[in-house]
Amino acid sequence: MRVDTAVVYVDHNILQIDFKNPDDHRFLQAMAAKYGAWFSRPGNGICHYVHCERFAKPGQTLIGADSHTTQSGSCAMIAIGAGGLDVAVCMAGHPFELPCPKIVGVFLENELVRPWIQAKDVILELLRRRGVRGGRGCVFEFTGPGVHTLSYTERGTIANMIAELGATSAVFPADDETRGWLEEQQRREDFVELPTGDTGDFDEEEHIDLAELVPLVAKPSSPGNVVPVEELVGTPIQQVCIGSSVNSSYHDLALCGAVMRGQRLSEQLVSATATPGSRQILDQITRSGTYVDLLMAGVRMLEPACGVDVDRRHLRSARARGARVAGAAAGSSRSRPEAHSRTGA
Hints:
- By secondary structure, the chain is α/β, with parallel strands linked by helices.
- The chain has a domain at 5-226 and 335-343: Aconitase, domain 3, CATH 3.30.499.10.
- Helix content is 32%, strand content 18%.
- The strands form 4 sheets. It has a 5-stranded mixed sheet with strand order 2-1-14-3-4, with helices on one face. It has a 4-stranded parallel sheet with strand order 7-6-5-8, with helices on one face.
- Helix 7 packs across helix 9.
- It is globular, with a radius of gyration of 20 Å.
- It starts with a strand and ends with a strand.
- The model is unreliable at 314-339 and 341-345 (pLDDT under 50).
């Protein structure tokens, strides 16, 4: 291993129904031990969240085999999603090459009107303006007084979803909020203060008044098909999925738990699921009572993993097989779990 830190995450194909997935997991665990990589076993959590909790450091560079690796930009990292072969090349000590990106400065003013306006509305507003190709070849650098009103996990939501714009990465400053996060993770020594730029430092600029945002939603069949929620009032809903790859922090789940406390799911829903982003978050919602609030409301509580992704793969495979096998589909695709490699900036 030729990088400072390399981590293998098992967060997609986690179901050990037959021999296929367990064999993959044992192979990855053995290879990580042999070559000096960290191994995150099934159930530890989704790579984006666990990496922010355990490994993300301001000023460093992260190359990860998942498009939403960009979430670590919330820690002032250059975090880029790449193909598995690109990551392997980096792990072997070779440079990661890409065309020099444009830098888009996103100036945030004022403060979100919480709780009904959330960080996801910031990224949906950028998608509404620019579409799913509007960030290609760009790094988005978030600055302005509004940035300092966002929590670390809110920044993570924005950085995670910058990939939906086709962007290379997103970067937030390393400030007091970052310091507080790292202290909570018992990693105070990893903090380095790093500001973001100002007017005149960027190739392009976007300006967003957080106080003027309205609740937004992306309609089928594209993340760029963004409209205000009020346009969809009265639309029947059959399924609700809370969390998984993004919006699965403690605050996200606690807000849903508070809304559902003492309530029951609508009889019109087929199902509702909630997925915490990591084992740490699962522990927090359990201790705070949020887990029970959601469970007693009728929400299916899933383990910390990209469970919704697995369900979609399961559905496609089951349809292809005529739904002959109820459980084996999740392991049949043999998809490689996420692997992250980090090099010094």
